[in-house]
Design goal:
There is one protein chain. By secondary structure, the chain is of the alpha+beta class. It contains 10 helices and 8 strands. Strand 5 and strand 6 (219-236) form a beta hairpin. The termini are far apart.
């Protein structure tokens, strides 16, 4: 096709028209934004819409209002959320703030207010309610009978302490009582020895172990386990004052409820300082004690068992 000589001019004309259209659109947008900005600024600062400068002597309280986008173009008056702020430098203070800072300025305001309240305890109100007519509390001494009755009421059960009213686990020791009781039962026990002799238990030489009463759910459970050594002496008829008695020990390694029930209270007899010229007397004392103490020891620790059970049940 032949070249159109006017074609470049037409292109330049189209470009100029496009630029003019874009410029008009930008100007319209700028005018719209400027108008809305002035409208908003006018509501925030009176006189700013007309070009009037805001004075520094304006009211110290200003309103910050929120406008929803839906009502910005309709001109309808939106609901406004007002947040009031105190302008810096004005020194304005509300009455509530002044009252709140007044006690802090005095320093002892809290202590003074507390002092002005006066006594507020139970006894104060009790006295105020009765106007002094109520009798004053006074200690009263209980008799022995009343004290025993009160102790039984406070106790959770027989053999329990007053604090253990619920009848939970509680353990009481009776070892001192058991040791003294064993000494009462065995010291002085005499066993006849062939050849005119007599062996006597002189003392409890050693006493190990314990006796306890355990309360479990309000029920007493007693028990003991001892390791006891007894000292004995044996004399014979016709011995002079210068003749020393035969001496020895009886060792009970285990004395308990089980050994008493099973009749298995085992023990060993020992003769001390053996001498050749008295061998027959020493053997006679050994045989007499070895066979003559079994029933006695079983009965002795059986008595301990029964009396400990009585103590567990509240007996003496």
């Amino acid at each position: 096709q032949p070249r159109d000589p006017h074609r470049p001019c037409a292109r330049r004309l189209d470009a100029a028209n496009g630029t003019r259209v874009i410029g008009n659109a930008v100007s319209a947008v700028a005018r719209t934004v400027t108008g809305r900005f002035k409208s908003t600024l006018g509501r925030l600062i009176p006189g700013a819409r007309d070009g009037e400068p805001s004075s520094s002597s304006a009211a110290p309280l200003t309103d910050l209002r929120e406008e929803s986008p839906a009502t910005a173009h309709t001109g309808a008056r939106p609901k406004r959320k007002v947040v009031r702020k105190v302008k810096k430098g004005t020194g304005a203070m509300t009455e509530a703030e002044k009252k709140a800072e007044a006690p802090a300025a005095n320093g002892d305001g809290a202590a003074k207010a507390k002092k002005d309240k006066g006594p507020v305890g139970y006894h104060y109100w009790h006295q105020q309610a009765n106007q002094g007519t109520a009798p004053k509390a006074a200690p009263v001494k209980l008799s022995e009978e009343e004290a025993d009755k009160l102790a039984k009421q406070m106790s959770g059960g027989v053999g329990l302490s007053s604090w253990n009213q619920a009848g939970t686990w509680e353990e009481r020791g009776h070892t001192d009582w058991a040791k003294a009781r064993v000494e009462e039962l065995v010291v002085g026990k005499t066993v006849d020895v062939r050849g005119g002799g007599a062996a006597v238990v002189k003392e409890v030489k050693t006493f190990k172990g314990d006796a306890t009463v355990v309360m479990v759910r309000g029920k007493p459970r007693h028990g003991f386990d001892f390791d006891v050594t007894l000292a004995w002496e044996c004399t014979f008829e016709g011995d002079g004052e210068d003749v020393k008695p035969v001496k020895g020990t009886v060792h009970i390694p285990e004395a308990s409820r089980d050994t008493v029930d099973d009749d298995e209270v085992e023990y060993t007899v020992k003769v001390e300082d053996r001498k050749t010229d008295r061998r027959s007397q020493e053997d006679a004392a050994y045989d007499a004690l070895k066979g003559g103490l079994r029933t006695f020891l079983r009965e002795t620790f059986g008595t301990i068992d029964k009396e400990l059970l009585a103590r567990a049940n509240g007996g003496a």
